[in-house]
Amino acid sequence: MIKNLEQVVAMVLTSFPDQHPRVRWADINAIEQLSTDLGPDLQVKYHQGVLPALAGAMDDFQNPRVQAHAASVVLNFSENCTPHILMPYLDGIVSKLLSNHMLRAASMECISLVGMAVGKEKFMANANQVMEVLMSLQVSQMETDDPTTIGYGLDSANV
Fold first, then answer.
1. CB of 71 within 8 A of CB of 97?
2. CB-based contacts of 114: which residues, under 8 Å, 6+ apart?
3. CA distance 141 to 127
4. How many angstroms separate the CA atoms of 151 and 111, rounded?
5. CB-hemisphere CA count at 13 Å for 21?
6. How far, in Å, CA of 150 to CA of 159, rounded?
7. What is the pLDDT of residues 114-155, one digit of tens each?
8. Hey, what's the torsion of the CAs at 132, 136, 137, 139, to 10 degrees?
């Protein structure tokens, strides 16, 4: 599969802007599977196309499933990334994750792992913004059964 990875990635990325949300969801799912099965080769060679495509899918406010899946796959993809790979995308990914409250739990987990991947020194510029949002969410009117309330404590400890 690695010998055909360039063609596979190109085919998947070409159909990312498809009109149908199921096609977009399937593309994101393909990236997730490739990240798991072929990481870190996928991350090293194709991050320039994959991360912007996933970030774009995180803006799909008309289709929350596509949006949430993209955020989740950013998490999966970043697990096999070095700080060098993630740094150019850090600000954009963090701001997208923080701006969407529907993706709270996945966002906080992803931000936490991205922060750990790039290291304390490089993440410090974003850490204050992340902590401000975490604190505002913690004191806001969140439902007591909201599953993200448990995760906030864990993720803020990681940040």
1. yes
2. 74, 78, 86, 90, 93, 94, 123
3. 23
4. 12
5. 13
6. 15
7. 777 778 887 887 777 777 776 766 665 455 445 444 444 444
8. 140
For 58-78, what is each residue's pLDDT tens digit? 999 999 899 989 988 998 899
* DSSP string of 32-45, one letter each residue: HHHHHHHTTHHHHH
At 103, the amino acid letter reads L
Amino acid present at 61: F
**What does residue 135 show for φ and ψ, rounded to 5 degrees?**
-65, -40
Query: 55 with 86: CB under 8 angstroms?
Result: no
Q: Collect all residues with Cβ–Cβ distance below 8 Å to 126 and sequence separation of at least 6.
A: 90, 91, 94, 115
- Cβ 132 vs Cβ 100: under 8 Å: no
Gap between the Cα atoms of 3 and 93, Å rounded:
30
Residue keyed to tokens 């360039």: 6
Give 143's contacts (C-beta < 8 A, 6+ positions apart): none
Whether the pLDDT of residue 9 is over 60: the answer is yes
